[in-house]
Amino acid sequence: MTVRLLLVAILLTGISGIPGLFFPRKSPLGERVSAVLLGTGCLLGLFSAFACLLPNAAASLEAVWPVPGGAFAIRVDALSTVFLAPIFLLSLLGSIYGLEYWSHADHPRSGPSLRLFWGGLTAALALVVTAQNTLLFLAAWEVTALCNFLALTVEHRHDAEARRAGLIYIIATHAATLALFGMFGVLHAATGGFSWTPLADSAAKNGSTTALFLLAVLGFGTKAGIMPLHVWLPPAHANAPSHVSALMSGVVIKMGIYGLLRVTSLVAHPPIWWGGVVLGLGILSGILGVALALGQHDLKRLLAYHSVENIGIICMGLGLALLGRAEERPELVALGLAGSLFHVWNHGVFKSLLFLGAGAVIQRVGTREMDRLGGLARKMPYTALLFFVGAAAICGLPPLNGFASEFLVYIGLFRAAVEKSGRLWLAGGLGAPALALVGALAVACFAKAYGVVFLGLERTAAPSRAREAGPMMLAPMIVLAGLCFALGGAPAVVAPLLDAAVHEYGGGAPSLLKMAPLNFLSVTALFLLVVVLVLGLYLYLRTRRALPGSIGTWDCGYAAGAARIQYTASSFADSLVRLFAWVLRPLVREPKLTGPFPKPSKFHSETPDVVLDLALVPAIDTTGRAFSWLRWIQLGSIHAYLLYILLTLLVLMLWK
Amino acid sequence: MLQTLIQVALLLALPPLLRGIINKTKAAFAGRVGPPLLQPYYDLIKLVRKDSVFSDITTWVFRAGPVVAAATPLVAGTLIPFGSAAPLISFSGDLVLFAYLFALSRFFTVLAALDTGSPFEGMGAAREATFSCLAEPALFLGLLALVRASGSLSLATMLGAGLGATWTTSGASLLMVIVSLFIVVLAECSRIPVDDPATHLELTMIHEVMVLDHSGPALGLIEYGAAAKLFVLGALVTRIAVPYEGANVWVNWGLLLVGIGALAVVIGVVESVMARLRLLQVPSLLVAANLLSGFGIVLLAR
Amino acid sequence: MLFALVLIPLAFAGVAFAVPSQRWRPWLLPLGGGAHLGLYLAALRQSNLSALDGWLVLDPLGRLVLGLISVLFLLSSLYAPAWLALRPGRSNRVFCANLLIILSMITLITVAHHLGLMWVAIEATTLAMAPLIYFNRSGRSLEATWKYLLIGSVGIALSLMGSFFLAYSAVGSRLESSLLFEDLIRDAPQLSRPWLHAAFVLLLVGYGTKMGLAPMHTWKPDAYGEAPGLIGTLLAGGLTSGAFLAILRFFQICSAAGEAAFARPMMVALGLISMAVAGVFMARQRDFKRLLAYSSVEHMGILVVGVGIGGTAIFGALLHLLNNGLTKGALFLSAANIHRAYGSKLAAEVTGALQKVPISAALFLTAFFISEFTIVRAAIFNGQYAVAGLFLLMLVVVFVGMGATVLPLVQGEATPSRPDALLTRETFFNVAPPLAFMSLVLLLGLYIPPFVSSLLKDAVATIELR
Amino acid sequence: MHSVVDPLLVVILLLNFFLLGTTRLRAAIAGSAAQGVILGLLAALVHVSVGPRPLLIAAGAAFIKGLVIPVLLIRAMRDAGIRREIDPLVGFIPSLLLGAIALAVSLIFAQTLPVVPSQAGSLLLPASFATVLTGFIVLTTRRKAITQVVGYLTLENGIFIMGLSILEAMPFLVEIGVLLDLFVGIFVMGIIINHINREFSSLDTSRLSALKE
Lengths: 656, 302, 466, 213
What we know:
The complex is a heterotetramer of chains A (656), B (302), C (466) and D (213).
Chain A: H1 2-15, H2 29-51, E1 60-64, E2 71-75, H3 78-101, H4 110-128, H5 134-152, H6 160-191, H7 208-224, H8 233-239, H9 242-252, H10 254-265, H11 272-294, H12 299-326, H13 330-365, H14 376-379, H15 381-394, H16 401-417, H17 422-454, H18 461-464, H19 471-489, H20 495-505, H21 512-515, H22 518-543, H23 569-579, H24 581-584, E3 587-589, E4 604-606, H25 612-630, H26 638-655
Antiparallel strand pairs in A: 1-2, 3-4
Helix pairs in contact in A: 1-2, 1-4, 2-3, 2-4, 3-4, 3-9, 3-13, 3-19, 3-20, 4-5, 5-6, 5-9, 6-7, 6-8, 7-10, 8-9, 8-12, 9-13, 10-12, 11-12, 11-17, 12-13, 12-16, 12-17, 13-15, 13-16, 13-19, 13-20, 15-17, 15-19, 16-17, 16-19
Chain B: H1 2-13, H2 15-30, H3 39-49, H4 60-77, H5 94-115, H6 119-150, H7 155-158, H8 162-188, H9 207-210, H10 216-241, H11 249-273, H12 282-301
Helix pairs in contact in B: 2-10, 2-11, 3-10, 4-5, 4-10, 5-6, 6-8, 6-12, 8-10, 8-12, 10-11
Chain D: H1 2-21, H2 25-46, H3 52-80, H4 92-112, H5 124-141, H6 145-164, H7 172-200
Helix pairs in contact in D: 1-2, 1-4, 1-5, 2-3, 2-6, 3-7, 4-5, 5-6, 6-7
């Protein structure tokens, strides 16, 4: 029954955009109808996702799907619920946000299509995490990719950047899907079926499990945006409409994590190197992701690279869980996986919050270039405050939610570090400091982002005209910010769900609360709050009567060009980017200054994507040139063509 | 209960004294009398009684910075054991919280600096953010070594009585960790050779320039927070160096206080005999701290 | 019944020759197509249809391909009247008659169980197609026709020789030589091996030319590029399927002789080469109709690889045969609309088609995407990891090249049309047929009706004789 | 039987070389016509015992290949006003050498295939292969469309020789179909040649290279 409710939810969200297509172009009724449909669906979905976990709930359903090997089999287990919850929640919040951000009045053409794709995306995502049949999974997976692509390029007519991002996205996601075809082929060959069937131990001997794992990392890793497979992620996140970016970053990329989880859960005794690979990729993604983020000038690109970073943290947890399974340390499985899954939630919450905040800024100011912004906290105080909460949360600062999940991963890594097994403690010994580095870099990066966008003086005229975002845009952000506090302040409430998910994954550990004292986090959070409040109150009371009159910042006696000589995004990050220059390879074009009075000239710096811009695009260009060279084959001469036939004939005759 | 009260009292009262000791040491090296030992307290009282000036450009972040900067070291201080008192709050994994509290404080102070829109403070903020990125892993590596040595994830046990035994088995490691953490303390607390607390010239602008625009009680909170940070981190280092825990609680307290005092003297000596490093060389120093702790762990793993 | 299937289109062709009205003649096409489909559906109800002493048999494989052809023809013929109406100045007599002749001959291919007769039918389709490719009466289309005709004829001549070799393989073993399919299957184990091998090579190369496997595919981009889109549909969906059916027939004989192991590596090799060549030429392709041609080469490669791998891949290949045929319908017809809306088929001159011909552009994009996606079925392998890996790699290469060409075509701001563009807006008759094709493809992707799946299963069962 | 068949096959082989060596289009057409007639003769000789049906086919083949098609081609040639194949892609002497190689390959290839005793030592198979290869050589080395058609005809002739061995496998109907297809094919080619001539004022197919990548 409950699972049927979920089906209804999926159906409602899936069709939510369709009525909007039939309303007259001028009527805003369509967007309301689709919002109501989607909202109902999402609420139903949220309810049923959790209801399915109750004892005695009918959580699975199977119907005939007449495609060879196919069956319409869906099942909701704790793992699914962990992913279903953010899907429905963020879809709901995003659609509310969209009512104002992408309102019908502003976007009469693309609005209906976007809402159609949005609904389809939500439904397909929900299907992905519940599908039991692998073909159903693949179908839902492809619909996700397609809807996502269409939503991303919905403004294709005017936005060449979005078109390019869409191209990269569709190619990357398609390549990933092909890897998944291969993976399911291997799974089919090993188990003889088309469902998530655990593999027999014998499969490890003929290399099936190895192939399975590598293909899964390739396919799901691309979707998740693990370095170096992340190439599609920054342009796509940067150029999509902001609430689409929020949904992409919040849930779509998590589908890769879900897939990795499902696949690795099929193997009873994963080899230890699996965990090593995932952990290593996690560390790589974490550090390089945040390092690349530091070099960005585009607010949304910066956020996008932070998705790579956070996926890295999630992968570190996952890698730890895999190591734990290989070495039979259930507590490591539990801590790693719980940290990973909890971070999936938390990242979904704070990253969506940040993207929505960025969207508000973009809508009100009209640019994503951080170096053109500044001082917005005075123009858009609520947006700024909410963005601030998100920024603090993504840096993993206590008492917000990012800290809670990173805390779990940390404990897991530290626990691994005290293990006798050399491989385990190596993992912990590398992982924990790496995570610390990531955290510190994230603090630097968001200090830069918030500081440059919202604080200081307006760098150009555009931000000084900005107004506060409207209630429809603020409301979802307020909910998300509240969740940042709630999940960070009382992380223990999610422990039962995480326990169930760990159990589903194959860990038989004691409950999470016994190993990770999440309640103490609440205590210290409270304590911290009290201390801050006391001191804050003191300062407030003491400075209530500040000196009257208009007073600027002390300029050290140099009063000219105050707004222009502020630190910019680039200059703030410059020294850190330099530290990483050996891998980031930033491009700097600086003028040569000659003589005592040099002429005005331009300075330009950017940090291209190491993989996409410095490796992949040149590689594709080279291949393209090689292909162009190969085109002499089709040289237009019929004589040559006939000769090809003769030669083929001769070769084949001689071959056998 | 008494022990706890003493701990809280010391935590609240002693931090400014460390600055006094450092300044006195430096004065002694320079052959001056120097300011009174209690001068930092006088300064604080003076600041608290002053009025404040806030730039129009600033927002609430500018005021939150000093508050958080003062609050976080105090909360962090409740997590580590002093003398023979158990920490106020202790749980498995509290070391992570300990480290992240400092990150929280940094986040706020850096933003408070950026809030002014002044290029000078921006420069300080950027440098602060940069160097702490390297100091933080070093802190974690140091803590990791202690975790590895003690097998526990809570600071109370890590810095507990068992540490004495570790000194006998792997003293070299602990020594490396101490040196490494000492460098971290110097960096986090903006001392020479990383920063110069006495000036805010362009060449040295890190911490001091970040707080350029703060005044009155707000500046007082910042000064106090900085001192508390030094005190808490110093207590951590002292505890590793002098893990002795005897039957007599007062001896333990005395040992701790003497230890922290000695640390302050050492800092003073370092500041007197060393020049501030060039900014470009600071990362090398911090990387060295990381490596030291790393070696310490490798030694422990044998 | 079988006679009717073959002869009724011929009769319609005769009528088409006779009807004087330029305007009404094209409507004979859907009429003939409808009649054919009706007959086909009636034939489906009867089992073991056979005529002419077993020369004509409607076996499961034939049913499958014939069904595809019939649907393909009907839907594309619906597109024809409106399209021909755009070019009133040109006589459509030969066009209509030849289309119907081609329908008749492809039908003959699918039901012929005498391999000589099958050859005659294939050659007949080749010849009947030539004037249709030359429909546009330009120098370029003339060149394309010449290449198509000569290369196709040579290829088919080789397959005639292959058929003779096959017949001789019986003589060599002192059996009664025969080209009747049933006889050959029965005698397969005794057939002389060297002759059989040589025969298969000749047939693979010969019908492979017709099918457009690289490196015998060279006529394809020219012919597809210059022929009207409607003709492209029939070439890419119909004639190639017929040629593939022929290859399957000979593969059946090979596998009945226990020589599948001889045939397979060759098919896999040619298939992979086709995919590679397609990948090379699809990247940075400037002409989107030629792009379609290379896509066809790629998909022919996929089909052959599927059969070459064997096992469940054969099912995949046959399903892909249906999907490919129908997708090509959607692709070529929507491409034709785009072509005529802009008056150009060069990627540089066609962008933002979504703005100008939204439905066709959406179809074009979706069909391209789907055409790659339907390979799912073919991609489930029997543990041949090397082949599978190459296969997937080629698909990635193809997709990169294709995506970079197709997306800018469809998205973005529309470029102005050339003055000679014929189509100003989309109408029911030029959008409905590709839409119908697309719906069928989607249907097959999401739901395979029971009768289709039983057709597929029966067909698979006949291919792998052990 | 070899005594009659083999000499005729030798003539066919010689005609192959003639085709490769001649520069005149008319001579080439005549050569292939002669081949067609000899093929008819061969068909009649090989299957003289079977009955009247093969004779009919033989006559049909000789008629179409020896008369109808050559007439078609000569008309096309006249329309185009061309007489010679000048400057082929591969010269005449090298073509002859290639022909010799083709003959050798054919002999070797025929050796590897088992044959029924009655045909042991017969030139039937080698001649067939050699003629097919000759057709290919003409197709790939000559520029004029008409010569290429002649090459295609030669190729078909070679296949026809092959077909002589398995007449029972090719029933009357099919055989007629094959011939009809051949005829229609050449007919269509003739029409296209005509169009090519009008469109490009030349029959040089190497100029037909506008369609390329």
